[in-house]
Amino acid sequence: MKILLTNDDGYFAGGILSLADKLHKAGHEVIVCAPEGEKSGAGHSITFVNDFVYRSHDLVDGVKVYSLNGTPVDCVRFAVKVLCPDADAVVSGINNILNIGTDYLYSGTVNGAIEGALCGKKSLAVSTNSFDGDYEFPSTFTVDNLDRLLEYANENLIINLNIPFNKKELNKGISVCHAGFREYNDNYVPVAEGGEGKVYRLVGECPSMERSKLSNDASMSDKGFITITPVVCYFSDDLVVRSLSKEKFVL
Predict the structure, then answer these.
(1) 203 lies in a domain?
(2) What is the tens place of the pLDDT at every residue in 132-173?
């Protein structure tokens, strides 16, 4: 299989390089096109006004690695149009923290996969908690299950895979589930005086859903389960469209 890899942590990140190496050793043809720098939280943003510069890097034996001065969505679109239009699939990650529940609205990693689907490629987003830089198990799990996961992906749906622990023995199992709601206790905190006003920083944390009775990706990942969640790419609701179309609007 010819696979395009991207992420939002940058082309040099441990997660994407580990996955690229594993995929190559499993017999896949791998092309990496990822941002030249950190783009976490980029969501589905795209660049319209700046020129693109891409560079090649010798980082993984047998793998073509490119950086692009754009967002994850830019990277996927550019690669599909220029570098590898014949790619069979897009895999985004491995991100170094989980992207669960409503995180996918903000995540550059998940939206890189969504752009892959919009470009007609079967697409998968992969995230784990890897604070020690070890991606051995998440990479192996992704490669071993790649065909099964991509079988369910299409132009309107990606698979969002989250692996709570980067050590196999710490994960309690696998849960196929809906996307949940990930709440954050966010605050904007003043950190300095700057120019004409104060400088603020967004800080916060997400409360655990470990004791929740809900079976969604937020609660199940808190319980230690690897979660597999199908995420649709289009946002209109067919049921509401049918109901709303019967309304008598005033011109």
Answers:
(1) no
(2) 999 999 999 999 999 999 999 999 999 999 999 999 999 999
Range of the domain at 107: 2-180+210-244
Spatial separation of the C-alpha atoms in residues 78 and 66, rounded to whole Å: 11
**What CA–CA distance (Å, rounded) separates 143 from 137?**
10
The letter for the amino acid at 26 is A
Q: Which residue ranges in the chain fall short of pLDDT 50?
A: none
The H or E element that residue 241 is part of is helix 238-244
Amino acid sitting at position 162:
N
Q: What's the structural domain count of the chain?
A: 1
CATH code at 124? 3.40.1210.10
- C-alpha pair distances (Å), 235 with each of 33, 82, 104, 229, 241: 27, 28, 13, 16, 11
